[in-house]
Amino acid sequence: MKIAPIAPPDRVRSAMLSDPAEMLSRTFGWLLFLLALLLTTSPVGAAEYKLGPMDKLSIRVVEWQTAEGTFREWPTITGEYTVGPSGSLSLPFAGELQAAGRTTSEIATEIAKNLQQKFGLIDRPEASVEIAEFRPIFVSGDVETPGKYPYDPELTVLKAVSLAGGMRRAESGQRFERDFLNARGNYDVLVAERNRLLAKRARLQAEVANAEAIEMPKELTDVPDAQKLIDDETAIMRSRRQALTLQLNALDELKTLYQNEITSLEKKMVVQNRQKDLMSKELASIGGLADKGLVVNSRVMTLETSVADMQSKLLDLETNSLRAKQEINKATRDATDLDNSRQAELANEMQATQAALDETDLKLSMYKNLMTEALVNAPEAGALAARDGERPVMEYSIVRNSGTGEAKEFSAQENTPLMPGDLLKVTISDARS
């Protein structure tokens, strides 16, 4: 707190000059008063500290008596006061002052000013305000004893965690070592299964896009056996694609055979039509002669029978041509159905693979939490994890009031300094996270 210099009035100064003994006595008393004020003043670093609710202040008021030339302390006001929840400070005679967001020197100046106006004093009294006790901090999360703790200057995150008993520990009798081993075994199995599912999903995506190669998923970039997984899925993709190609080629060959058959039938139909036309002309030319008795009727009957046979053969050829065309259409539909079935199968496999991936991720999260709990609560499990390069990781964040009533949360480290009223959140995570 900054103290304004206090000079004795002119009358007292002249009295001191006229009486050397009185001058020495009063000078000594003056020095004692200044020393008392200095002893009750906050350190320089604390002068810039902004007060807030729950801060406890030690207030002392001293008045210079001009007539008597002595100092008088105000015991009615002198004492300890706590800043209320609304940020106000209530003092006898000085009234209610707004303390939140202000420094101790500002409060001291306002107290002295209010008292001078209240009692109409010629000389303004001197008030000293120091912080007797800072408002507390709060520690929550994965610590042994969450709660409220007193604030001390130079308090850091690590010191606050120590005040709260350190990392949360388990009750005795629980077999966390066995739980850790079981959880880690299941976790490793699920990690391998997840990697296979990621490779399978990449293969299905390549098949849907008709890509020639499978793109390496970003989740498998740092996995040692990722390339082997991709190679295995590539072999499956090639085998499936080859089987599909053989089926489509067989249908194309069948369509080609039927098309050739249609071409051959059409040629036969042309020849049959020509022969039928010739016989029809011959039958027409001798039909009149038969009526006149110039040609025997057996010849006419033979020609008519031949024409009828030709028409029957033409009908057979047309029927066979239609059947071949139907087979071609059927082969085309089979090829389309085969492609549609493949797309539907890929979509179903993709959906099932994604569902399996989601389920695996949930199980991985569960076993990760189980391992974290075991690492936190069991020294034996922690020793096992240390051998495998695993250990629990403590993460910190601080919720601090900005002074405007708005609380802000930010991440912190072990050496981050705390401020009065801070809320420290402690979270323990697994090194696998």
Automatic annotation (TrEMBL):
Source superkingdom: Bacteria
AprE-like long alpha-helical hairpin domain span: 183-364
Domain (Soluble ligand binding) ranges: 137-172
Polysaccharide export protein N-terminal domain sequence ranges: 47-131
Stretches of the chain forming a coiled coil according to its record: 187-214, 307-334
Record-linked InterPro entries: HH_AprE-like, Poly_export, Poly_export_N, Soluble_ligand-bd
Gene3D superfamilies the UniProt entry points to: wza like domain
Keyword list, A-Z: Coiled coil, Signal
Entry annotated with the keyword Signal: yes
Name of protein: Exopolysaccharide production protein ExoF
Organism of origin: Phyllobacterium phragmitis
